[in-house]
Amino acid sequence: MTSENERIGKFSLLNSYLPYYRLEQDGFHVIRAMPKTLAGMLERGEIDFTPVPSFYYLRNKAALQSYEFCVAAARSVWSVILVSKGARLRENGGSIAVTNQTTTSVKLLEIILQEQGLGHQIVPVNDGAASALLEHCPYALVIGDDAIRARQRYRVVMDLGEAWQDLTGLPMVFGIAVARKGLDMAGVSATLQESVAWGKKHVDVIIGAVQEAFRLPEEFLECYFNALTYQMGERERRGLARFEEKCHEYGLL
Question: Which of 17, 69, 145, 242 is deepest in the core (most CB within 10 A)?
Fold first, then answer.
């Protein structure tokens, strides 16, 4: 069972629309914020149960209890991508501007570049929009809704979910639900999984609601939601474990 006093967080991104839709329709108050912001709120005790970036979880898991909900991609993730104004990534060297809104995706990019033998310099930029990032470098790492908008304007030179699957044969887990240790959120976790199951069975309803809010093509939304998984199954756990191994291998953890 859940309580109205429990403070539940969600990524303020399109990828969280499907899993949380029924939960919010049922009247649960959900706090929306970007992933890094939610992690900070959790640390300060301002939120009880929330997805956090996978890299944050790996760095702090001794103090956290993880739950079933996650945001993962078996292959293409669609919304964690490298874009350019035209150049292919392998055509020449060049720097990559990375948004300040993500740590997990930056670490994933560093691993992929190392594994592929690419020496592109990573340049942190205090912005999230592809247009602003591409003012600094010929390539840009964009995530979330900024990435979805960027797909419509720029060349996609790498989908990081696809690149990870090609590298490991495993899903990439971008976020995982957690609570601070000692706080039992099993009831919230179960309720959220019920909402996920409802959303998966009623993708048409979700797409209809999203189209009103985001004005995106139905075909894209169907591909996008079908590409994402929201439950930590055996393959997702292996994918997260492999990400942790690679982070240690390259001195990122």
Answer: 69
